[in-house]
Specification:
By secondary structure, the protein is α+β, with helices and mostly antiparallel strands. Helices cover 28% and strands 26% of the residues. Helix 4 packs parallel to helix 5. The N and C termini lie far apart (68 Å).
Length: 154
Amino acid sequence: MTTQLKNEKLSPWPWQVSQQHVSFDPAGMNKKLKDLSQACYVVNDAQQGLGVAQQAQVVTDTITAVNALPVSAFAPALGTQSLGDSNFRRVHGVKYAYYAGAMANGISSEELVIALGQAGILCSFGAAGLIPSRVEQAITRIQAALPNGPMRLT
């Protein structure tokens, strides 16, 4: 059976979701909602209640669809690279707008600074409280691994 949909009467969003792509069970909805790399489309079915899908089709003025539900709410995909300030990423030359480290006494170790720097995250080595030879050793190791940053020494 096909149903003629006019989206402006059913939903404020310009999409519809095929029932075969909707999870109505809590475990399936939870899995889809936790996957921030995919867009989420929430539907409200009269028989099954709320459901979540990760794909939808655009609705035109009139469209013939089988088992399609109008979208009640929508959340776009949210990748980790899109979080934070793009100016922070640009100024510090990093992939992600995150910052870690800067604990005194070298608690944020050279390994942490190097690993995060290689992943595109700004990290600091906290040198406060360390003797100068230990600070020099850390600087040498970090600069050898990350000759062009991103890293900070505090």
